[in-house]
Every structure is written in C-alpha cells, then in structure tokens.
Amino acid sequence: MSDPVDVDDDLAQRRRAARELGAALRELTDAAVSTEVDAATLTDLAEQVRALVPPLTAASRVRGEPATVDGGQRARRMYNPASGPGNPIAPPMKVEIVDGTAIGRCTLGLAYEGPPSYGHGGISALLLDQILGHAHSTRGKHGMTVKLALRYRRPVPLQTPLRIVGRVERVDGRWTESVATISTEDDPDTVLVEARGVFAVPSAEQAKRLFGELERLVR
Ligand SMILES: CCCCCCCCCCCCCCCC(=O)SCCNC(=O)CCNC(=O)[C@H](O)C(C)(C)COP(=O)(O)OP(=O)(O)OC[C@H]1O[C@@H](n2cnc3c(N)ncnc32)[C@H](O)[C@@H]1OP(=O)(O)O
C-alpha cells in the first residue's frame, strides 16, 4: 500500500499537469477564435489538433465516474466549466470566501463574445450560477440551483478583469436564497449583471437517486 504522502504528492502533480493542459488548451482556443490565417493553415491545424485526442483517451472516464484528479482530502472540481482550471471552456473563475461572501475573479477573452466586444449573456449566467453555488455552500452543504433570475443592466466587457460577488440572504432548512453581481474590478460599485438564486440541498433520497455512489462527493 502506498504512503499517504506519496498519494498526496501524486495528486498534486496530476493537478498541476491538468491545470497546465487546461491553460494550454485555453491559449489554443483563444488563438483559434482570434485567428485570421488562411483556410489551408486552418485545415492543416485541425488535423494536427485531432492527432492529440488518442493519447488523451488512452485512459479516460465516463459519465458517473469522478475524475481522479478531483480526489484527496481537499477535494476540488478540477473540470468545473466555470471555475475548473483543468477545463479549457472555463475562464476559469478563481473563487475565495471572505467573511461568508463568495468572491470570484476572471477575465473573459474573445471565446466568450456575445455582442461585439462584450460577453455572451449565457456566460454571465454561468459565472453567477457558480458564485451563488459557492455562497450556498458556505452554509455547510453543496446544493443545486432550483431558481435563477437575472437582470442584465450593462454589457460585460471582454478582456477586462471582472469581480463576481455572491452572498446568502435567506436560509430555510435545506433551501437558501442568495444574490450575486458582476462588475469590473476597476469599478466594483457599478453593477453590470445581477442575479437572485434559490439553491436546495437534495434530500438523502434525492441525492441517492440522482448521484448513486457519487452522492458522497456532493453532500
Ligand atoms: C469533488 C467535490 C468538490 C466540491 C466543490 C464545491 C463546489 C461548490 C460550488 C458548486 C457550485 C455549483 C453551482 C452550479 C449548480 C448547478 O449547476 S446545479 C444544476 C442545475 N440544477 C439542477 O439540475 C436541479 C434540478 N432540480 C432538481 O433536481 C430538484 O429540484 C431538487 C434539487 C432535487 C430539489 O427537489 P425538491 O426538493 O423536490 O424540490 P422541487 O420540487 O424541485 O422544488 C419545490 C418548489 O418549492 C420551492 N421551495 C420550497 N421550499 C422553499 C424554500 N424554503 N425556499 C425557497 N423555495 C422553496 C422551490 O423553489 C420550488 O418552487 P416551484 O416549483 O413551486 O416554483
């Protein structure tokens, strides 16, 4: 049996590697949506990128299997689509909890463009849903979004450091109601998008039905 220290070292190494791959793929995505090179170059590059798939799928997981890189005593979702550093579709938003308030930071590149030079509204919803989830989790257990209401006040600028803040307003048993906002780091008092969300901790029976063996990861 391996020493716990070795296991932790191995996990830390895998996380660093997953983070590195996520960052490289994010650079690639950013370059792919900004490029103006000719069609022949694009076709050639598509072939080269496809050649990268088999080495990755040589060992892979399917739905219902947790990522091993998430594991360990301090579990974290490395491939979360909003905050997972290993997921190339995540900006990724970095989240910290300060005095019970969830604070996220990220910068959106051209891959997240909706209206020209501004963020796609669905991406704002993603970031707000995630930060509301973190706010809910400060009350002890992870929950699932059951309601999410958004008000888009001003467009969210791309390539600009953003601040996403969420806090719980009301707790009622396994339900919480929380509010969250997106603003720029430079002008935190001007709200660009605001959200109100209701989250629920699934009951034991619901968690078992929805997640089966994975239930322990989400409760
Ligand atoms: C490796 C691990 C590392 C972990 C790392 C941590 C990361 C920590 C951050 C994660 C952050 C993720 C953030 C993204 C979170 C998603 O993306 S979750 C995915 C999206 N959500 C879903 O798929 C949920 C789908 N919904 C469901 O499955 C079910 O609603 C649930 C959640 C199981 C709850 O079921 P239920 O208990 O039967 O409740 P349900 O009948 O659905 O709702 C009852 C009604 O009463 C309302 N209600 C009842 N009581 C209350 C109350 N007290 N207050 C307010 N409303 C109430 C409900 O809103 C609902 O309203 P109406 O329908 O009448 O309008």
Automatic annotation (TrEMBL):
GO terms, biological process: fatty acid metabolic process
Keywords: Apoptosis, Cell membrane, Cell projection, Cytoplasm, Fatty acid metabolism, Hydrolase, Lipid metabolism, Membrane, Transit peptide
EC number assigned by the record: 3.1.2.2
Similarity annotation: Belongs to the THEM4/THEM5 thioesterase family.
Positions of the Thioesterase domain: 120-187
InterPro entries, A to Z: HotDog_dom_sf, THEM4/THEM5_acyl-CoA_thioest, Thioestr_dom
GO molecular function: hydrolase activity
Subcellular location: Cell projection, Ruffle membrane; Cytoplasm; Membrane
Topological relation to the membrane, as annotated: Peripheral membrane protein
Protein's name according to its UniProt entry: Acyl-coenzyme A thioesterase THEM4
Annotated Gene Ontology cellular component terms: cytoplasm; membrane
Reaction catalysed by this enzyme: (5Z,8Z,11Z,14Z)-eicosatetraenoyl-CoA + H2O = (5Z,8Z,11Z,14Z)-eicosatetraenoate + CoA + H(+); hexadecanoyl-CoA + H2O = hexadecanoate + CoA + H(+); dodecanoyl-CoA + H2O = dodecanoate + CoA + H(+); decanoyl-CoA + H2O = decanoate + CoA + H(+)
Claim: Chloroplast is one of the keywords in the record: no
Keyword presence, GTP-binding: no
